[in-house]
Amino acid sequence: MSTAGWGECNLRECSVEQSLFQYRPYLAATSVFIALFGISGIVHMVQGIWYKQRTFAILMVLGCICEIIGYGGRIIMYNDPWDFNGFIMQIVCITIAPVFMTAAIYVTLYRSILQLSPSSASFKPALYYQIFIPCDVISLVLQAVGGAMSSESNGSSQAGVDIGLAGLAFQVFTLLVFIALAVQYGFRYHKDRKSGRVKSSGLDTRFKIFLICLSVSLVLIFIRCAYRIYELSDGYSGSALHDQGLFIALESCMITAATLLLNIGHPGLVFDPRRRSSIPVDKNSHVYSSDETNRDMEGAAM
């Protein structure tokens, strides 16, 4: 069955199998995801103000806004599977949204290392965000350019697909390197504590919840990015693009869960300056406040 072009058909005249995705997005599921991202974004905003974690809050709220716009595009495509604006809203915004979330995680690991034990890191802790956030920006630009080229070609540009895939592949590679370095730091910190080189209290319940939620969120985002590479590997004509169940399971559920976990294990649990006693800080190192960390980041960016 041939595919009808954008704006050339409607549900009264054509079968939904003639649309690009070959399905109508589930309205109920899409509405639920919009509501969850909306709630999570509002909670992240409130948490950022309450805990004075403005960088983390800004990045997470931007990610949630992109998700809401993207799923808004899916609602448009539920009503009209041949609506090109709905397609672009989805393909661009849902694709780039997790980039903001991974940037928030990169900043958070940097702050965690400063609080726990900078001496246990293999290199200067600031390099964690000085390297990985620019990598995130590169990934964001590639994915946005790929989406823009798809927009200009009405979704038929193979070059747009290839550039978008390059951005996703680079994001997956960056996440792999980041995860490896985070795991390495965890082992080094544990070893230094056992040997007495780091004189700190043990991880309390709040810090454990924070680390677990952060780690699981990172893995969920990684799974999602790997799925998106698979989904677009055959372009817009591939069978993976037509599998709505797979999209909901490996895109929608993964990112929704990651976003909500970052509400539950919010950095404010351990970095709130009003609860400094909850941080298992190395007694030989400086305790950084949120303002000091933000000044460090702003200075490094100049």
TrEMBL record:
<feature type="transmembrane region" description="Helical">
    <location>
        <begin position="245"/>
        <end position="265"/>
    </location>
</feature>
<keyword id="KW-0812">Transmembrane</keyword>
<feature type="transmembrane region" description="Helical">
    <location>
        <begin position="126"/>
        <end position="145"/>
    </location>
</feature>
<feature type="region of interest" description="Disordered">
    <location>
        <begin position="282"/>
        <end position="302"/>
    </location>
</feature>
<keyword id="KW-1133">Transmembrane helix</keyword>
<keyword id="KW-0472">Membrane</keyword>
<dbReference type="InterPro" id="IPR007568">
    <property type="entry name" value="RTA1"/>
</dbReference>
<feature type="transmembrane region" description="Helical">
    <location>
        <begin position="56"/>
        <end position="76"/>
    </location>
</feature>
<feature type="transmembrane region" description="Helical">
    <location>
        <begin position="207"/>
        <end position="230"/>
    </location>
</feature>
<feature type="transmembrane region" description="Helical">
    <location>
        <begin position="26"/>
        <end position="44"/>
    </location>
</feature>
<dbReference type="GO" id="GO:0005886">
    <property type="term" value="C:plasma membrane"/>
</dbReference>
<dbReference type="GO" id="GO:0000324">
    <property type="term" value="C:fungal-type vacuole"/>
</dbReference>
<feature type="compositionally biased region" description="Basic and acidic residues">
    <location>
        <begin position="292"/>
        <end position="302"/>
    </location>
</feature>
<protein>
    <submittedName>
        <fullName>RTA1-domain-containing protein</fullName>
    </submittedName>
</protein>
<feature type="transmembrane region" description="Helical">
    <location>
        <begin position="88"/>
        <end position="114"/>
    </location>
</feature>
<feature type="transmembrane region" description="Helical">
    <location>
        <begin position="165"/>
        <end position="187"/>
    </location>
</feature>
<dbReference type="Pfam" id="PF04479">
    <property type="entry name" value="RTA1"/>
</dbReference>
